[in-house]
Design a protein that fits this description.
The chain is 71% helix and 0% strand. It has 203 residues and is mainly alpha-helical. It has a single domain, classed as Tetracycline Repressor, domain 2. GO terms for molecular function: DNA binding.
């Protein structure tokens, strides 16, 4: 739903510079191959500054993850839009341009999400972010249903579908399979048009 490089377009301060260096090193080497030394290769300042701020690799990656998730949460469209406009914007964010920076960002997020299988701290951060996204989408779908824009009896289940598609498309971006992403977008748009929208809105 976002372009990872945009998170660091206005980097200011040592923390942000370290996190940006970590992001690029993670994309290049993956979680298993990542070391503080390799992060230092992307960091213009002394590597000792990294050790001054962080005890180890996971301490640094958890801070990077929290930074990324906070940025993602801030990019969820504001509900001041109409419910229909909001959902259309979400769809466009999910299936946005499949350029190299989007693929790079998706790869970094997947590397970190994979750690949830055996690390409680990673799991809790992703759980918090996923719940935030689902809650925001469910509230908008509920509002749209009350206005007669949507015909949905279970907004939470519909929001869970959106969240599942978000995670799935992030995975597809790592393979750069644009045909698959395009066909999935068409099918998901059909779901929105035929299953989410009320009969009055479909006319």
């Amino acid at each position: 739903m976002a372009n990872g490089t945009n998170f660091f377009s206005n980097t200011s301060g040592t923390r942000e510079e370290i996190l940006e260096s970590t992001f690029h090193a993670l994309c290049e080497h993956g979680y298993a191959g990542l070391t503080i030394s390799k992060i230092g290769d992307h960091f213009d300042k002394s590597q000792s500054l990294i050790y001054h701020h962080y005890d180890n690799k996971d301490d640094l990656l958890l801070d990077l993850l929290e930074y990324i998730l906070e940025e993602l949460e801030s990019q969820v469209p504001l509900s001041t839009q109409s419910p229909k406009e909001y959902i259309n914007e979400i769809v466009e964010q999910i299936f946005g341009d499949t350029d190299s920076s989007n693929a790079q960002f998706s790869k970094a997020v997947l590397e970190l999400r994979a750690q949830t299988a055996h690390n409680e701290e990673y799991r809790e951060l992703f759980k918090r972010s996923d719940e935030f996204v689902r809650k925001q989408i469910a509230l908008v779908i509920q509002e749209g249903s009350e206005q007669g824009v949507f015909d949905v009896n279970q907004p939470k289940q519909a929001a869970a579908l959106f969240q599942t598609v978000i995670v799935g498309i992030q995975g597809q971006r790592t393979t750069d399979d644009q045909n698959m992403i395009g066909s999935t977008k068409a099918e998901f748009q059909r779901y929105v048009d035929q299953c989410l929208l009320s009969s009055a809105e479909r006319k």
